[in-house]
C-alpha cells in the first residue's frame, strides 16, 4: 500500500523522486498507520509555514502583504492579552500608528501606559508627518495594488479584533477605550493620511460594535425568554433564575458600554469628518452612517442624526451625494423605518427631486431610484414629480432609462400601495390593462410622435405587455373591447405596435449621437430571429385585416405599412393569399394618400418584398411595383393635360409628389414625361409654387437617373444626346427662375420654398456636370461651366433667401417638405460649389465668406467649415479670399450710406467689424507665426485699397484692418506704422479722420504697453514654499473647529 501511494504522489519540482523501498514479505500495515508515517501533505506544510510566518511577522506587514494570516494573528494576540496586557496593547496601538504611515514614530511602551499621554503622542506623530517621515499606504500609486489591498486588510483586521475580543478584552474598559481615544485623536489631526486611515478604522469599529451589540441583543431576548419561562413554572429554580438575571444584566451593561463607545466615535469623529476637505473621507463617513442607521436604528434613526444625510445631499462632490442617496435608499427599503422618516422626507424631498437632474449621471440615476421608493411608499405625490417626465427626451440614455422604470412601476404596474417592495403585479394583471394605462400616458404626447417614441423606448424593456403582439393586434381589430378607448388611443397603439416591433428586431427607434451600426453576437442574433418569427406569426393572417380596416386613416396607415419590412416574409410561402392581399392593399394606399410618410412607407414596403421574397411572392411584388409605376406615369400625364385644359390642379400636385417619392428610390421609365413637365413649366400659367418645385425636382431626378444609366466606358451617342437635351432643358428652367424669382419676392409674393429649391437644384446640377469631372473622358461633352452672369444671378437669389427668416418664408408652405428647404441648405449648396470647384471661386468664395457673421450660428458654422476645408487645400489663396470678403462687406456698408438707410448702416458697419475680428481670429495662437505672410498680405492690400480712394475708404482701416494688425507680433508694428505714415504723407486726409486717429492710437498704445512691460521688474520665483511661522500657538488635535488647519496641513503633506 505504501509503495502504491508513493508511486502516485507527485514529486517536488527540481528534486528527483525518492527511491522506492522493496517489501519482500510481512503483512501490510493498516492504511491509518501508513497515513501517519507518510510525510505531511503540501497543504499541511503550507499551513505550518503560514503559522510560523504569522508568529514572526509584524502586524503591519501582515495587513499590507498577507491578509489571509490576519485571523490567526488576531487570535494569538487575544490569547496573549490576559498575560501581557500592556505589551499587546502597545502592539495594537503601534499597528494603528504604522497603518497611518508613521513607521519611525519612536514611541516606546512606557509612553502609552497613561491615558493622559494621548495628546503628547499624537503631537509627536504630527511632528513626524511635518518632517516628511510618513509612508502613504492609503493612497499608494504603486502598481502592486497596495492601496486597495491595504484598505481591505485594515478593515478586516479591526473587525476581526473586535469579534475575537467580544468574550473578554472588549469589555475590560481599558483596551478599546484607549484605542478609541487614539483613533478619534488621529482622525482630527492636520495630516490627511492620518485622517484617512483613522477615519476608516473608527468607522469600522462602530460597524463591528453594532455587530456585537446585535448579538448581545439576541442573547438578551433568549435569556429573558428563559427567565420568564422559568418564573412561570410552579416550582421554579431560584438559583437558575438568579443566574439568568445576572447574565441579562451583564449583557445589558455590555450593550450600554458599546453604545457609549459608538456615541463617542460618532460625536468626536463622524461629526467632524463628514465635512472633511477630503471627499473620500466624507464619502466613507456617509456610507458607514447609512449602514449604521439600517443595522442599529434604535441609536441612529432619529431626526437629529438623519440631518447629516440631508445636508450631504448638497455636497459639491458627486461621490458624496451619491453615497447619501444610496444610504437613504437602504433606509427607505425597511418598512419599520418609514414612520420615523416622515419629518425628514418632508424637509428634504424637494432636494431629492432636484438631484434627478444632477450634472453627474450616476447621481441622477440613483436619485431617480430613491424617488421611485418614495412614490412606492406614498411619501410623494404625482404633482411633485411632474418635472421628471420632461427628462424623458433631453436627458442622457441612463437617466431616461431610470425614469422609464419609474414611469412603468408608478403609472403602469401601479404597485405604489403594496407593502412588499419589489412586487410589480405584472403577473396579476392582463396585458390589456397595462396597455390601456400606457395609452393614457401617450395621450399627453399624441401631438408629438417623436416624444411618444422616447417614452416607448425607455419603458419597452420592462413592459412585457408591449411584446404581447396578439393582444395589441386584437385591440386594434376591436376583438378585445377596452373601455375608454378613443381614436387617439388607436393612433398611439399603432405607433406602439410599430415601435415595439422595431425594437424587438434590434433596431433603434429614437435618435442617438452614436450612429454606429449595431452589432450582435450569435446568441443575440438568435434571440432577434425568434422575436421576428413571433411577430410574423402573430401578423400572418391578421396583417391584411389591419390594412383593410385602417387604409383610409392617414395617421394609422403609414406605421402599419412599415410593419412588413420587420417581418420574416418567407413565412408567407404557405400564406400566399394573405401576402398578395397585403401587397394589393399597400398598392391602394399609395394612390389613396398623398402624405410623404405614407408614400415612402408604401414604396419601401413593396421594394423590400421585391428584394427579400422568393419565387411566386417575389414575382407578385415585382409585377405590382411595375403596375404602380405605369399607373403613376399615366396619372401624371393625365393631370398635365387637365392643367393645360385649366382643370383639376390638385391632381397634378398629388401625383408629382408620388412621382418624386418613387424616383428617390428607383428610375421611372416613361415616354415623353420629362418633355411634358418641361412644356408645362415653359408656358406661363397660374401654377402653384409647390407644383413648380416638384416638377423641377422630378426633372432633376430624371437627369440624375439618365446619367446613372450611361455606360462610362462605352457610351452611345444617342444616350449622350438624350442626356444633353434634358440637361439643357432643365438649365433653361432654372436660369429663368434665377432671374424671375428675385423680382417676385420684391413684389411681396412668398416664393421662399421655390427659391430655395431652385438654388439647391442649380448647385447640384453644376456639381453634377462640372467640367473637371468629365475632362479627358468619353463623356467630356457632358462637362459644363456656368457663365459668370448665371453665377451672379444664383448668388443674388441665395442672398435674398438668407435675409429671410425661416418662419417668414414657411408661411403657407407645405410643412412636410420644409426640412430640406431653409437658409442652411441654401448656404450648404453654395459652399459645395466652392469646394467642388464647379464655379469660379474668385467671385462666389468671397461673397459667401462676407456673410460669415450675418445670419446666425448655423450659417456661421457652415462657412467656418468651408474655410477650414479650403485651408486644407494648400493651393488656395486664403489671403485673397479674406481680403475680397472684407472689401465686399465694406462696399455693402458704403452702398447703404449712399442709400441713406441709417438703420441698416450701423448694423452693416458692425457686421464688417465682426467679420474682420472673426477672420483675424483664425490666425490666433499657433497659426500666427505659420501664416504671418498671409496677414501681412491682407494688411498691405487693405492699405492700398483704403488709400486708393481717400477719404471715402479711410474708415476701412479701422473697421477691417485693425484686427489683423493686432494679430501680428509687436516687432512688426513699427514697420507698419512707418510704411503707413510714409504712404499717407502727401495723401488727402481731410475726410473722416476719427477712424485713422483711432487706428494709429491703438498701435502706438500697444507699443507703449510693450515698453512698460519690459521695464517692469520681474518677480523672483522662489524654489520653496512660504516660510513657516514659528512659535505658532498649539492646538489640541481633537478640537472641533480645525477645518482651516486641516486644509493647510493637507496641502503641505
UniProtKB/TrEMBL annotation:
It comes from the Eukaryota. Residues 270-355 form the SCD domain. Its main location: nucleus. Gene3D superfamilies: Leucine-rich Repeat Variant. One of its GO terms (cellular component) is nucleus. It is found in: Chromosome. Residues 1-44, 1011-1053 are annotated as: Disordered. Residues 7-17, 1020-1030 have a biased composition (Basic residues). InterPro entries: ARM-like (IPR011989), ARM-type_fold (IPR016024), Cohesin_Scc3/SA (IPR039662), HEAT_SCC3-SA (IPR056396), SCD (IPR020839), STAG (IPR013721). PROSITE patterns: SCD. Residues 1044-1053 have a biased composition (Acidic residues). Keywords: Cell cycle, Chromosome, Chromosome partition, Meiosis, Nucleus, Phosphoprotein. It holds the Pfam family HEAT_SCC3-SA. GO terms for molecular function: chromatin binding. GO terms for biological process: chromosome segregation; meiotic cell cycle; sister chromatid cohesion. Component of the meiosis-specific cohesin complex, which also contains the SMC1 (SMC1A or SMC1B) and SMC3 heterodimer. Such complex likely contains RAD21, or the meiosis-specific related protein REC8. Interacts with CCDC79/TERB1; recruiting cohesin to telomeres to develop structural rigidity. Belongs to the SCC3 family. Meiosis specific component of cohesin complex. The cohesin complex is required for the cohesion of sister chromatids after DNA replication. The cohesin complex apparently forms a large proteinaceous ring within which sister chromatids can be trapped. At anaphase, the complex is cleaved and dissociates from chromatin, allowing sister chromatids to segregate. The meiosis-specific cohesin complex probably replaces mitosis specific cohesin complex when it dissociates from chromatin during prophase I. This is Cohesin subunit SA-3.
Amino acid at each position: 500500500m505504501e509503495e502504491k501511494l508513493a508511486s502516485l504522489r507527485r514529486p517536488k519540482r527540481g528534486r528527483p523522486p525518492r527511491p522506492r523501498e522493496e517489501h519482500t514479505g510481512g503483512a501490510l500495515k493498516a492504511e491509518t498507520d501508513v497515513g501517519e508515517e507518510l510525510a505531511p501533505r503540501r497543504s499541511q506544510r503550507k499551513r505550518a509555514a503560514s503559522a510560523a510566518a504569522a508568529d514572526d511577522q509584524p502586524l503591519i506587514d501582515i495587513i499590507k502583504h498577507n491578509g489571509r494570516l490576519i485571523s490567526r494573528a488576531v487570535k494569538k494576540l487575544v490569547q496573549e492579552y490576559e498575560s501581557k496586557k500592556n505589551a499587546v496593547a502597545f502592539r495594537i496601538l503601534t499597528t494603528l500608528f504604522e497603518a497611518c504611515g508613521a513607521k519611525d514614530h519612536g514611541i516606546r511602551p512606557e509612553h502609552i501606559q497613561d491615558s493622559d499621554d494621548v495628546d503628547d503622542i499624537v503631537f509627536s506623530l504630527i511632528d513626524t508627518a511635518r518632517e516628511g517621515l510618513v509612508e502613504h499606504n492609503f493612497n499608494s500609486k504603486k502598481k502592486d495594488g497596495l492601496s486597495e489591498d491595504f484598505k481591505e486588510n485594515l478593515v478586516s483586521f479591526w473587525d476581526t479584533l473586535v469579534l475575537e475580543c467580544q468574550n473578554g478584552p472588549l469589555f475590560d474598559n481599558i483596551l478599546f477605550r484607549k484605542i478609541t481615544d487614539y483613533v478619534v485623536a488621529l482622525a482630527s489631526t492636520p495630516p490627511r493620511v492620518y485622517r484617512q486611515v483613522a477615519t476608516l478604522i473608527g468607522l469600522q469599529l462602530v460597524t463591528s460594535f453594532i455587530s456585537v451589540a446585535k448579538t448581545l441583543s439576541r442573547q438578551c431576548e433568549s435569556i429573558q425568554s428563559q427567565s420568564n419561562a422559568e418564573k412561570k413554572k410552579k416550582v421554579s429554580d431560584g438559583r437558575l433564575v438568579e443566574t439568568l438575571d445576572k447574565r441579562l444584566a451583564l449583557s445589558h451593561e455590555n450593550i450600554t458600554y458599546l453604545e457609549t463607545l459608538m456615541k463617542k466615535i460618532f460625536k468626536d469623529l463622524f461629526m467632524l469628518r463628514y465635512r472633511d476637505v477630503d471627499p473620500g473621507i466624507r464619502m466613507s463617513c456617509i456610507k458607514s452612517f447609512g449602514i449604521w442607521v439600517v443595522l442599529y436604528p434604535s441609536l441612529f434613526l432619529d431626526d437629529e442624526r438623519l440631518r447629516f444625510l440631508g445636508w450631504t445631499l448638497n455636497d459639491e462632490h458627486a461621490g458624496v451625494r451619491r453615497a447619501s442617496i444610496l444610504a437613504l435608499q437602504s433606509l427607505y427599503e425597511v418598512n419599520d423605518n418609514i414612520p420615523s422618516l416622515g419629518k425628514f422626507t418632508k424637509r428634504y424631498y424637494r432636494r431629492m427631486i432636484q438631484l434627478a437632474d444632477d450634472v453627474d449621471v450616476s447621481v441622477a440615476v440613483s436619485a431617480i431610484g430613491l424617488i421611485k421608493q418614495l412614490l412606492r411608499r406614498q411619501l410623494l405625490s404625482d404633482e411633485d414629480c411632474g418635472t421628471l417626465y420632461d427628462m424623458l427626451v433631453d436627458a442622457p440614455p441612463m437617466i431616461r432609462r431610470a425614469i422609464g422604470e419609474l414611469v412603468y412601476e408608478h403609472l403602469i404596474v401601479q404597485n405604489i400601495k403594496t407593502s412588499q417592495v419589489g412586487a410589480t403585479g405584472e403577473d396579476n394583471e392582463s396585458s390589456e390593462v397595462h396597455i390601456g394605462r400606457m395609452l393614457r400616458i401617450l395621450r399627453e404626447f399624441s401631438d408629438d410622435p417623436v416624444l411618444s417614441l422616447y417614452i416607448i423606448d425607455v419603458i419597452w424593456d420592462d413592459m412585457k405587455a408591449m411584446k404581447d403582439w396578439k393582444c395589441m393586434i386584437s385591440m386594434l381589430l376591436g376583438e378585445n373591447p377596452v373601455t375608454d378607448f378613443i381614436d387617439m388611443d388607436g393612433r398611439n397603439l399603432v405607433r406602439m405596435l410599430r415601435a415595439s416591433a422595431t425594437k424587438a428586431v434590434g433596431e433603434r427607434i429614437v435618435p442617438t449621437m452614436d450612429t454606429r451600426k449595431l452589432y450582435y453576437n450569435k446568441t443575440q442574433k438568435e434571440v432577434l430571429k425568434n422575436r421576428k418569427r413571433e411577430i410574423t406569426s402573430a401578423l400572418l393572417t391578421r396583417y391584411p385585416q389591419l390594412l383593410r380596416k385602417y387604409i383610409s386613416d392617414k395617421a394609422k396607415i403609414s406605421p402599419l405599412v412599415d410593419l412588413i419590412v420587420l417581418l420574416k416574409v418567407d413565412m408567407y410561402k404557405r400564406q400566399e393569399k394573405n401576402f398578395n392581399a397585403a401587397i394589393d392593399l399597400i398598392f391602394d394606399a399609395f394612390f389613396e394618400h398623398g402624405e410623404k410618410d405614407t408614400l415612402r412607407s408604401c414604396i419601401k414596403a413593396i421594394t423590400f418584398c421585391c428584394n427579400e421574397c422568393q419565387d411566386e411572392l417575389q414575382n407578385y411584388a415585382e409585377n405590382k411595383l411595375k403596375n404602380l409605376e405605369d399607373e403613376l406615369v399615366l396619372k401624371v400625364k393625365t393631370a398635365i393635360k387637365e392643367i393645360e385644359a385649366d382643370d383639376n390642379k390638385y391632381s397634378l400636385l398629388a401625383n408629382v409628389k408620388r412621382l418624386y417619392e418613387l424616383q428617390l428610390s428607383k428610375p421611372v421609365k416613361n415616354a415623353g414625361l420629362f418633355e411634358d413637365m418641361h412644356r408645362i413649366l415653359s408656358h406661363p400659367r397660374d401654377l402653384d409654387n409647390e407644383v413648380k418645385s416638384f416638377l423641377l425636382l422630378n426633372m432633376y431626378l430624371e437627369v440624375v437617373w439618365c446619367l446613372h444609366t450611361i455606360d462610362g466606358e462605352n457610351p452611345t451617342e444617342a444616350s449622350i444626346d438624350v442626356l444633353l437635351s434634358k440637361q439643357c432643358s432643365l438649365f433653361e428652367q432654372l436660369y429663368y427662375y434665377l432671374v424671375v424669382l428675385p423680382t417676385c419676392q420684391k413684389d411681396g409674393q412668398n416664393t421662399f420654398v421655390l427659391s430655395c429649391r431652385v438654388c439647391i437644384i442649380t448647385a447640384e446640377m453644376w456639381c453634377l456636370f462640372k467640367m473637371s469631372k468629365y475632362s479627358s473622358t468619353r463623356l467630356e461633352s457632358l462637362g459644363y461651366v456656368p457663365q459668370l452672369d448665371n453665377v451672379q444671378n444664383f448668388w443674388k437669389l441665395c442672398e435674398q433667401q438668407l435675409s429671410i427668416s425661416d418662419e417668414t418664408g414657411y408661411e403657407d408652405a407645405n410643412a412636410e417638405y420644409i426640412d430640406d428647404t431653409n437658409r442652411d441648405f441654401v448656404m450648404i449648396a453654395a459652399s459645395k460649389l466652392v469646394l467642388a470647384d464647379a464655379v469660379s471661386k474668385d467671385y462666389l468664395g468671397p461673397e459667401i465668406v462676407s456673410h460669415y457673421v450675418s445670419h446666425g450660428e448655423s450659417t456661421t458654422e457652415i462657412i467656418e467649415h468651408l474655410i477650414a476645408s479650403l485651408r486644407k487645400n494648400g493651393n488656395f489663396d486664403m489671403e485673397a479670399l479674406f481680403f475680397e470678403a472684407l472689401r465686399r462687406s465694406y462696399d455693402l456698408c458704403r452702398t447703404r450710406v449712399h442709400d441713406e438707410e441709417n438703420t441698416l448702416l450701423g448694423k452693416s458697419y458692425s457686421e464688417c467689424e465682426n467679420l474682420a475680428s472673426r477672420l483675424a481670429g483664425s490666425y490666433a495662437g499657433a497659426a500666427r507665426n505659420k501664416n504671418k505672410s498671409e496677414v501681412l498680405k491682407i494688411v498691405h492690400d487693405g492699405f492700398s485699397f483704403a488709400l486708393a480712394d481717400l477719404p471715402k475708404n479711410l474708415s476701412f482701416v479701422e473697421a477691417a484692418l485693425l484686427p489683423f494688425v493686432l494679430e501680428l507680433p509687436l516687432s512688426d508694428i513699427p514697420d507698419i506704422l512707418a510704411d503707413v505714415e510714409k504712404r499717407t504723407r502727401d495723401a488727402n486726409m481731410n475726410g473722416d479722420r476719427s477712424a485713422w486717429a483711432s487706428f494709429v492710437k491703438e498701435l502706438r498704445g500697444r507699443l507703449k504697453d510693450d515698453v512698460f512691460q519690459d521695464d517692469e521688474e520681474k518677480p523672483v520665483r522662489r524654489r520653496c514654499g512660504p516660510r513657516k511661522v514659528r512659535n505658532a500657538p498649539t492646538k489640541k488635535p481633537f478640537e472641533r473647529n480645525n477645518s482651516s488647519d486641516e486644509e493647510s496641513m493637507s496641502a503641505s503633506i
